[in-house]
């Protein structure tokens, strides 16, 4: 029997779907026949209003997740897939981290992914099928300068993903994370704005280049589809072999 890589007919919620990796994954889902709800502060320009819509949402407040989840289910029904792609990186040195910056980073990068998933798993349980894909990072397992708050949140995402899998996989809901290397997004603007630094990170990979948006969509669609039925609790590096060296 051939594996089923299709996402046609599924309903997906993508946080941070108006830019970066979230946008790339959302576009791939719509191209594959899924209906997509993008949750972001600003409108996702690619949404057509029929098979894809944007909902304005402040994801930095975990207490609003129940209401956001309710609104996200209105356009196309209860979601089958959740992509937690929204995030922030304050890039502060350890000595300069403030309590407010630390809390904002953890709220958006770690707390909201859990509480939004918690609010959406009920519908997935009812159908006996669901997919949660979190966005981890190179910093889930290693340290970078100026990344103490971000790294703490992404280390948490790795463990959160495993804990989600333990909690919900028996209900047919898999939970996995993609751990991207360096991709050209708003979060990595300082890297790609420095040609020498960008080249240094490219040289760290086994492939010899940094990532492109096309590199993230295949792994994402695999984890969103029934082809990954027996994959859960895993953190998949999509880094060109950066962590292999």
Automatic annotation (TrEMBL):
Which domain of life does the protein's organism represent? Bacteria
Q: Give the keywords, sorted.
A: Oxidoreductase
The UniProt record lists the keyword Oxidoreductase = yes
Keyword hit for Oxidoreductase: yes
Gene Ontology MF, one? oxidoreductase activity, acting on the CH-OH group of donors, NAD or NADP as acceptor
Q: Which family does it belong to?
A: Belongs to the short-chain dehydrogenases/reductases (SDR) family.
PANTHER family for this protein: 2-DEHYDRO-3-DEOXY-D-GLUCONATE 5-DEHYDROGENASE (PTHR42760:SF5), SHORT-CHAIN DEHYDROGENASES/REDUCTASES FAMILY MEMBER (PTHR42760)
Recorded protein name is Gluconate 5-dehydrogenase
What species does this protein belong to?
Pontivivens marinum
């Amino acid at each position: 029997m051939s594996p089923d890589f299709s996402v046609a007919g599924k309903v997906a919620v993508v946080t941070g779907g108006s830019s970066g990796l979230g946008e790339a994954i959302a576009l791939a889902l719509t191209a594959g026949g899924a209906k997509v709800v993008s949750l972001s502060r600003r409108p996702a320009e690619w949404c057509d209003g029929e098979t894809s819509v944007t909902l304005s949402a402040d994801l930095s407040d975990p207490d609003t997740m129940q209401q956001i989840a309710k609104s996200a289910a209105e356009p196309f029904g209860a979601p089958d897939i959740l992509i937690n792609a929204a995030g922030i990186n304050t890039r502060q040195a350890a000595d300069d981290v403030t309590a407010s910056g630390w809390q904002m980073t953890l709220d958006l990068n770690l707390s909201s992914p859990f509480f939004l998933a918690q609010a959406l798993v009920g519908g997935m349980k009812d159908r006996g099928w669901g997919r949660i894909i979190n966005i981890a990072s190179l910093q889930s397992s290693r340290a970078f300068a100026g990344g103490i708050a971000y790294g703490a949140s992404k280390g948490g995402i790795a463990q959160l993903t495993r804990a989600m899998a333990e909690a919900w996989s028996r209900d047919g809901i898999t939970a996995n994370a993609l751990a991207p290397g360096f991709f050209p997004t708003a979060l990595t603007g300082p890297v790609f704005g420095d040609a020498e630094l960008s080249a240094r990170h490219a040289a760290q990979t086994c492939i010899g280049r940094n990532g492109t948006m096309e590199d993230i969509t295949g792994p994402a669609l695999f984890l969103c589809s029934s082809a990954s039925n027996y994959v859960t609790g895993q953190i998949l590096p999509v880094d060109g072999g950066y962590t292999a060296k």
